[in-house]
Amino acid sequence: xxxxxxxxxxxxxxxxxxxxxxxxxxxxxxxxxxxxxxxxxxxxxxxxxxxxxxxxxxxxxxxxxxxxxxxxxxxxxxxxxxxxxxxxxxxxxxxxxxxxxxxxxxxxxxxxxxxxxxxxxxxxxxxxxxxxxxxxxxxxxxxxxxxxxxxxxxxxxxxxxxxxxxxxxxxxxxxxxxxxxxxxxxxxxxxxxxxxxxxxxxxxxxxxxxxxxxxxxxxxxxxxxxxxxxxxxxxxxxxxxxxxxxxxxxxxxxxxxxxxxxxxxxxxx
Amino acid sequence: xxxxxxxxxxxxxxxxxxxxxxxxxxxxxxxxxxxxxxxxxxxxxxxxxxxxxxxxxxxxxxxxxxxxxxxxxxxxxxxxxxxxxxxxxxxxxxxxxxxxxxxxxxxxxxxxxxxxxxxxxxxxxxxxxxxxxxxxxxxxxxxxxxxxxxxxxxxxxxxxxxxxxxxxxxxxxxxxxxxxxxxxxxxxxxxxxxxxxxxxxxxxxxxxxxxxxxxxxxxxxxxxxxxxxxxxxxxxxxxxxxxxxxxxxxxxxxxxxxxxxxxxxxxxxxxxxxxxxxxxxxxxxxxxxxxxxxxxxxxxxxxxxxxxxxxxxxxxxxxxxxxxxxxxxxxxxxxxxxxxxxxxxxxxxxxx
Amino acid sequence: xxxxxxxxxxxxxxxxxxxxxxxxxxxxxxxxxxxxxxxxxxxxxxxxxxxxxxxxxxxxxxxxxxxxxxxxxxxxxxxxxxxxxxxxxxxxxxxxxxxxxxxxxxxxxxxxxxxxxxxxxxxxxxxxxxxxxxxxxxxxxxxxxxxxxxxxxxxxxxxxxxxxxxxxxxxxxxxxxxxxxxxxxxxxxxxxxxxxxxxxxxxxxxxxxxxxxxxxxxxxxxxxxxxxxxxxxxxxxxxxxxxxxxxxxxxxxxxxxxxxxxxxxxxxxxxxxxxxxxxxxxxxxxxxxxxxxxxxxxxxxxxxxxxxxxxxxxxxxxxxxxxxxxxxxxxxxxxxxxxxxx
Lengths: 269, 352, 342
Prior knowledge:
By secondary structure, chain B is mainly alpha-helical. Chain B has 14 helices and no strands.
């Protein structure tokens, strides 16, 4: 799986080489992991809860430093945590402006240009009208979009999203997935996101990493990795694939089969 | 679709207006305070003295005595300035700490700084340290208390609101115990009165020297802190998020905490541990200008100055005796905080 | 007091408990601080005291008291533990005292623990009333078996009061200076207000108490009170000269007229009621009313110390007591010099 990791960086947005990490010595959460996220594409980290997806994402985003190995990034990373929780009722614009932290001097406050950039970022996820709303009045999906906008406001070229859809209802799952696709397609961003729902990976990802646990991460093209047998063994359940690829209706709306109900002992996705 | 940019501008205009109004109020209260006092100087005379002091203009028939001038310029002016500066320092400290700890229940006393500083001052008295030494001890222990509270609250792995408050109670109690031990061991004739006086604190003996003692550190720490106010927003997201957003969060956080400790040290050095200012004032400021620290920190500074100056005016004019300022601020602060606490709790119940 | 012989056996302490002394107490402990000094005065010696409060013992180290009672600063002090007045019961039992003087107005626990182990505990109180000090002296006399001497000391103190009450009775209010007595002024300003004993002293000496409040006040309040005489107690470390140099305090009529004085420090700090208070009244009356005839302070002091303590005070001793050096720049103080005679 790590044979072509040493390829030139110009094709890849993120490259991990033999990365290991442990919160407590002796119990590694990530062990000798190598993977790459090709530029302008979406990489999904698929795996059960507790397999180390979030830690891997934090290593990619630089929020954590690896104990061993190297993480290379070919651009600015915007990290979007799983649940954006605020202790204070900041406005949506305030929240998005914080994405500009890199660009605002320690003794300075946001300038007109920063506000414009934040508004543009909000526009890119269709949330411009929410700018003056209080963040804690938003729904989960809206919050996720604001978090996306915050990453965009930083002029990030690589977005790292931790479980962007897991806390959302179906409508907002679709909205967030659609914006992820749009950002990659229209703006040439690279997205790495984690999920434990195969159909979400199937819906948008070009590449999929199956995260089994420390020491075992298998990466490959989505259509290859999302084979029912592989996914089934990843989650330890029998699975049957229902829809091979997402489709678009004539208006451009994403059509995904979200049938995830248990069916005679089988999981369909 | 509303033009949100305009709404944003309207909001910042509103904030500017509030800050301007608070500044004007503070200026007015300072003038009024110069006219108040136990020594009879008519308000008009007090203002004329101030005017002539600033402009050098002396009317041909001076309507005041030398003592009037001294009372206004040497007694009231430093005291009014020191009370306002101390209040501003506490208001700013409180708003900053609440942002940094992501916790509306913290203030300089809750996170142990005040008690740490008080113990530092006691150590300085016991060791017979000089003025600079006393400041160093006070600041050192204020910082130590802060580090201890921070470390303790992190022990559990999560920095919940409760764990910070509990850690603060533990650290404060420890330093209070040390102070108690020192009071017991101190020389009753030479050291004990000094310790008791230091712990009590008061604006009653403020002189122009006190103005330097509090003014310089507050300027040195407060001005950079106010300039960094927007970054407190980012720090309030927590270290991990702030780091992901590109800040060197742990370093920045400790820098900010250092500056806060300096502010509180300066205030404690002049007037003893005054509670219920840093905790309460930011809540009122938040109602005026919202939670964004960019507006909240200046508003809290001005409001703190107004509040403590007002309280000190009461302390020095209500009776012939000086009323203890800490008792007054607690008397007013606790019910206000109870209401704030009750409201936020009630809100929390509706939401969750 | 004729017919007081029965008091040699029985005395009622200030909590109403009766104590009987068949023989004079030979092993006395004083936990209440001022009782050490009062017992020494009545007994005339430190030989019977086997334990005393550390604070009281410390006060015997310097000044003329260290010459009058040379052994008083070497008395064991391990009679308290924890708080200043909390008895160390085991240490006290080991000392086998036959009288303990202890505060009876600071919570019952301080005396109850002593009663519980059967130690004879004389409870004392201080309500700023002269009768309290009389009681201390009377109890000391009963314990030491020197009732007559105790009574004569009480008579001497009362005599001082009566003498100066009479001397100043006819001074009209317009001629009574406003006097401000300060426990401290530099760190915080703590006047002797209406509730203090200083209030009575000032009145007896023919003054008016400038302070109309007790507690801590501001300099502005002092300026509003406009005192014509300022007295500093020995608790204050700064001197009259310091006060008169201060830009604010120098505005008071007292400082302008240089009528700022440090209270004398005899065997104890002057300022309260006690064996030295007739001298204090003589001192203060002289300063408040310099034209008042009939007071020869140094002679009176010499006589009093000889009578009370069999102590022959030298001129240097009296200079020290009167704080001649500290008060040298104060108005009218030259009259107290050894060479001058009023």
